[in-house]
Amino acid sequence: MNYRHHYHAGNFADVFKHAVLVRLARALQRKPGGLLLLDTHAGRGSYDLTAAAQGDTLARTPEWPEGIGRLATRNDLPEAVADYVGLVRAFDRQQGNAEATPRFYPGSPRLLSAVARTQDRVALCELQPDEGAALRAEFVAERRVTVQELDGYTALRALLPPPERRALVLIDPPFESQAEFAHIAQGLGEGLRRLPGGTFAVWFPLTERAGVAEFDREGGLRRAVALPPTLVVHLVVNPAAPKLNGCGLLIVNPPWQFDRELRTLAEWLAGALAQSPGGGTEQRWLVPET
Question: Which CATH number applies to 12-48+108-287?
Answer without folding.
Answer: 3.40.50.150
